[in-house]
Amino acid sequence: MTGRSDESPPPAQTTRRQQLRPWQIRERCFNVRRRGLDPVEIRSFLHQVADELTVAQTALRAVQEENVRIKNALRSWQSTQSANHRYR
Predict the structure, then answer these.
(1) How far apart are CA 58 and CA 22, in angstroms?
(2) Is the CB of residue 9 less than 8 Å from the CB of residue 1?
(3) Contacts for 49 with CB less than 8 Å, ≥ 6 apart
(4) For 6, 49, 65, 74, which has the most beta carbons within 10 A of its beta carbon?
């Protein structure tokens, strides 16, 4: 493995990671180095990422709820159609 993020780990190492939460991004701290990055810039970026993650997770929940609603409506319609064809 070369360490590239687009490669999957071998099956034995595959584990389901917990979903990253926006507050975890906002509260993430890094070690300070003498010639490190600007901590204010990093904090600003992490807040931006957390905000975008919040929007994405909210949209995902809405889509998942809509998917359940559509599946239930389809099952209901299929049941009605099946019942109508049986008794003709």
Answers:
(1) 11
(2) yes
(3) 25
(4) 49
Are 1 and 30 within 8 A, CB to CB?
no
CA atoms within 13 A on the CB side of 37: 10
Structure tokens at 71: 């599946």
CA distance 68 to 36: 47
Q: What is the pLDDT of residue 37?
A: 85
Tokens 């099952």 — which residue? 75
Write out pLDDT tens, residues 28-80. Answer: 888 877 888 888 899 999 999 999 999 999 999 999 999 999 999 999 999 99
